[in-house]
Write a structure and sequence with these properties.
heterodimer; A: mainly alpha; MetI-like fold; two-stranded antiparallel ribbon; 10 helices; 3 strands; disordered N terminus; B: alpha/beta; 5-stranded mixed β-sheet; 13 helices; 17% strand
């Protein structure tokens, strides 16, 4: 098989019987290596499934007794009183802060990440694209506590101006309502820092799929007289869409579950603080609340209450991923 | 220090470590081995200092302390995972709500002998603020409570002005910062507010904040937030207020304003009653104390140990380490890093208890 640099064998057309170039004939050779490798791969796959199931079982078993004793609605209450009796805990606040901060983070990170990936794969000259790609990857290697400290002390003090403008222009809209929380510690600040944290994930995966765009598609578009942007829009983006979606979902998972950076930046609210939809409010996410209080889990019911919150995060991530899977499957059906 | 004789005999056996062991007849007892402790983060700097000093004198000893929080420390101690625990409150004699286990009883069971609470480190809690041009601020318990539960919202409030004659207060809004994690500092600060100003702070004390404000993670978080927020106020441990160069309010419990000093804290600890039995030194602090010159807001960190260790070698090391920790010169050193030394009356009781460990 001729190997031309820049062209993946995946690009090649199927043979007359409809097999792709990389497909085997499915017959086992029965050799030891085959069996060993097959078994190992199967084992790894099953192990992961078992692990996830066990985590779910653990969360459920810890959370259910506490949930049974809970005296308020778990999903809609904003109370969090797990020390005394009656046991009252609800996740409305946590859920909102978690979803809002991650959603804003994705709104920033996805377009930005896709832009970076397009630049690296389509626009940048070769000498620049490689170092640029590794630099973006390097962002993923920064520990989240560093992002947290940076966000709080360096970045936070500068976002006050943006926030003031938004409050002034759109303050009538609940999402932009002014609150008393310091500008360096709001959901918006956290969201921006989160967007930087998920950027390398979105960029790296998008870059890989954009790189896989069949050269024939691109050349076809160009041959029809498309400009570079039109070529990207008609050939690269449609081809890469499922990849970008799964990249976003991976990033979203990271944003939903981020702990330390959120804990450091975001100001928690005092008990009984009034409900606000605002992105300039403080609060806690599922992960940051659990991490912040883990040292003081001194009774099973308390640990159970926090793990019940963890269970919701687990389910949330699960649902998000399921939706992404469905979207990708449908895309595939259309593009083939 | 009557216990010295037997200890020195013991250290003579692994005396292969030889000539550097200049302790014969001197005051430092040494033992070898490894100790693991876990618990309160409030005493982290103090115990780090004590560990460094102890390991410098006793070359064969390794002591690890993991500052994961009082609750975690007690839990690990009861589970038998650590040799001693550090806690900002002594082991409880009653079951917590929603559980049937009693900390003291569980710890006794793990030890196979009574577990003792030894007060070791006193950490004053500062009421720290950030106000330009205000170097001296006096607060009474009632005003402090009103500030922290959001009744007083600006610095120019007449209630603050009334107790601070001659101070020009800015019209800045008061920004209260609290510990978002459950902490012994919050527990002791609210104990103080509830004891000294029950009318203005009706809520019972607890590790979880019940007042108003913005929550920040750990002492470093609140101190840093006040540092960067004009008009901010919080209640960190003394060392954090000092390190961040925050203003520290003087507290007037009724006998005149008291500045936060090691001596003033010692006076308040000295006024505490011992609630435990015998050598189990659970202190009952009098937060509302009207004693002149006593600084009333503080927390005491206990080292929780088994009175009879299961492993004799470890018990010896625990004893040696605690003894050096409670020694007068070690306690005096703590003041430089933001703690107050134990007053001599309490210290002598602690030393007696340590001598009775076996």
């Amino acid at each position: 098989m001729p190997s031309i640099t820049g062209v993946s064998t995946v690009d090649e057309l199927p043979d007359p019987e409809g097999h792709g170039p990389l497909q085997g004939d499915g017959a086992s050779t029965g050799r030891l290596g085959d069996r060993l490798f097959g078994g190992a791969a199967r084992g790894a796959g099953l192990l992961v499934i078992a692990l996830v199931t066990l985590i779910a079982v653990f969360l459920l078993s810890q959370a259910l007794p506490a949930l049974a004793k809970n005296k308020v609605n778990f999903l809609t209450s904003t109370k969090w009183n797990v020390d005394g009796t009656p046991l009252q805990f609800g996740i409305a606040n946590l859920l909102w802060v978690t979803v809002l901060s991650s959603a804003i983070a994705m709104l920033i990170a996805v377009p930005f990440g896709v832009g970076v990936a397009l630049f690296i794969t389509q626009y940048a000259p070769r000498w620049l694209s490689r170092p640029a790609a590794s630099l973006v990857d390097l962002l993923a290697a920064v520990p989240s506590i560093v992002y947290g400290l940076w966000g709080l002390q360096v970045f936070g003090p500068h976002i006050g101006g943006v926030q003031a403008v938004l409050e002034k222009l759109f303050g009538w809209f609940p999402l932009f309502k002014s609150t008393g929380i310091g500008a360096a510690s709001t959901i918006l600040t956290v969201a921006v820092v989160l967007s930087i944290m998920v950027l390398p994930i979105v960029t790296a995966l998008s870059r890989d799929v954009f790189d896989q765009t069949p050269i024939t598609h691109k050349e076809g578009a160009l041959a029809l007289g498309a400009t570079k942007w039109e070529m990207i829009r008609t050939a690269v983006l449609p081809f890469g869409k499922p990849g970008v979606i799964s990249a976003s979902m991976l990033g979203l998972g990271r944003a939903l579950g981020e702990t330390v950076a959120v804990m450091i930046i975001l100001s928690a609210l005092a008990d009984g603080a009034s409900w606000s939809w605002s992105m300039f409010n403080g609060g806690e996410t599922f992960a940051s609340k659990i991490a912040n209080n883990a040292a003081e889990f001194d009774s099973p019911q308390k640990a159970g209450a926090f793990l019940a919150a963890g269970l919701v995060l687990f389910l949330l991530t699960f649902v998000v991923n399921a939706i992404a899977r469905i979207v990708i499957e449908r895309r595939k059906a259309f593009s083939e | 220090m009557s216990g010295c004789g037997s200890d020195n005999n013991a250290t003579a056996t692994p005396g292969a470590s030889g000539t550097s062991n200049a302790t014969t007849g001197a005051k430092a007892d040494c033992a070898t081995g490894t100790l693991n402790g876990e618990g309160s983060s409030a005493q982290k700097n103090a115990i780090d200092q004590a560990i460094t000093d102890f390991q410098a004198t006793c070359s064969g000893a390794t002591i690890n302390y993991n500052p994961t929080g009082s609750g975690a420390g007690i839990k690990q101690f009861i589970a038998g995972q650590v040799d001693f625990a550090g806690s900002d409150s002594s082991l409880k004699d009653a079951a917590a709500a929603g559980s049937t286990s009693i900390e003291q009883a569980d710890a006794d069971k793990t030890c196979g002998s009574p577990a003792w609470n030894l007060p070791m480190v006193t950490g004053p809690i500062a009421v720290a603020y950030n106000l330009k041009g205000v170097d001296k601020l006096i607060l009474t318990p009632a005003v402090t409570a009103k500030i922290f539960n959001g009744v007083i919202t600006t610095w120019k409030d007449p209630a603050i002005a009334a107790i601070n004659p001659g101070v020009t207060l800015p019209s800045e809004a008061i920004k209260v910062f609290f510990r978002s994690d459950e902490s012994g500092t919050t527990d002791n600060f609210t104990k103080y507010l509830h004891a000294a100003a029950a009318a203005d702070w009706p809520a019972a004390s607890g590790k979880k904040w019940t007042g108003k404000g913005e929550g920040k993670e750990k002492s470093a978080g609140v101190a840093n937030a006040v540092k960067s927020t004009e008009g901010g106020i919080t209640y960190p441990e003394w060392s954090y207020a000092k390190d961040n160069k925050l203003g520290i309010a003087q507290i007037d419990n009724g006998a005149g304003p008291v500045e936060l000093t090691g001596e003033a804290v010692g006076k308040a600890v000295g006024a505490a009653k011992v609630a435990g039995e015998g050598n189990n030194l659970k202190l009952k602090l009098d937060y509302a104390t009207k004693e002149a010159g006593a600084y009333p807001i503080l927390l005491v960190t206990y080292e929780i140990v088994c009175s009879k260790g299961k492993d004799p070698a470890k018990a010896k090391l625990v004893k040696a380490f605690l003894k050096s920790f409670a020694a007068t010169d070690e306690q005096a050193k703590l003041q430089d890093i933001g703690y107050a030394p134990l007053p001599s009356a309490v210290q002598s009781k602690v030393v007696t208890a340590i001598d009775a460990l076996s």
